[in-house]
Amino acid sequence: MNRLLYLAVVLVLAVAPVQADMISGPFTTGTPIPATLTDWGGIMLPESLSFPMFNSALGTLTEVDVYLSGDLDTVVTVHNSSLESSTGHAATHLLMTVQDGGSNLVAPELDMTSPSYYYSLAPGETQSSGTLTKHLTDTESYTAAGVLAEFNGPGTIVLPAWTFTETAVYNTGGNTDGSQVTHAALTGTVTYHYNPIPEPSTLALLGVGAVGLFGWLWRRR
């Protein structure tokens, strides 16, 4: 009898539907941030990205992938305030970060530095670089319960975005200082991985098969 029951369990599990990890999306942000003067959340208000949340009627959410794509354009200005000449190079460093309302994300960020502007300044001279550009992407994947809960449900989720911008100057001779005017743009996508809910017809067939199997075992007794 024990061997027959063991066989029944094995056969029922064998005909059970296998739930594949399906993919919903990707969903492009509904509010891409165009080229906007930095610093967001510093001297400027924070910007934000928004995405449609996962439809829980599809199944159980198991993973959220967040993809960011950012651009900077910057003009660096260098001034030599000394009585001797100065040579060197300067660049703009930009850090772009997004975060969820509950601070559950291991903050996805874009950490980029513009191409260097090389200069040679006479005493008292000021030079500007012209526009320097940089593009960068980043993808982060999340399975933590707090993240899945925030992305799960009707409506949209809003991810505030911040920037930090600074000028790096490396010089020989003179006494130089640098400044920059920088614009940043940001967009992104989210992709949801989930285990689908079995279709009712599949569950019905499974139930019929199990009843028939146990009926056969009972007759065997």
What descriptors fit this protein?
alpha+beta; five-stranded antiparallel sheet; 3 helices; 19% helix; disordered N terminus
Q: Quick recap of the structure?
A:
By secondary structure, the chain is α+β, with helices and mostly antiparallel strands. The protein has helices at residues 2-15, 145-150, 200-220; strands spanning 22-28, 33-37, 47-52, 59-80, 86-98, 109-113, 117-121, 126-142, 156-172, 176-196.
Written overview of the protein:
Helix 1 (2-15) runs antiparallel to helix 3 (200-220). Strands 1, 2, 4, 8 and 10 form a five-stranded antiparallel beta sheet that branches. Strands 3, 5, 6, 7 and 9 form a five-stranded antiparallel beta sheet that branches. With 221 residues, this protein is of the alpha+beta class. It has one domain. 19% of the residues lie in helices and 53% in strands. It is elongated. Residues 1-18, 202-206 and 208-214 have low confidence and may be disordered.
Topology, element by element:
Layout: H1 2-15, E1 22-28, E2 33-37, E3 47-52, E4 59-80, E5 86-98, E6 109-113, E7 117-121, E8 126-142, H2 145-150, E9 156-172, E10 176-196, H3 200-220
Antiparallel strand pairs: 1-10, 2-10, 3-9, 4-8, 4-10, 5-6, 5-7, 5-9
Helix pairs in contact: 1-3
| Secondary structure: helix percent | 10-25%
DSSP helical segment count: 3
Overall pLDDT: 86
Sheet bearing the most strands, described? 5 strands, antiparallel
How much β-strand is present in the residues?
over 45%
Structural class: alpha+beta
Number of domains: 1
Per the principal axes of the C-alpha atoms, what is the gross shape?
A: elongated
- The whole-angstrom Rg is 29 Å
Low-pLDDT windows of residues: 1-18, 202-206, 208-214
- For the terminal residues, how far apart are their CA atoms? 8 Å
Order of helices and strands: HEEEEEEEEHEEH
Please report the total strand number as a whole number: 10
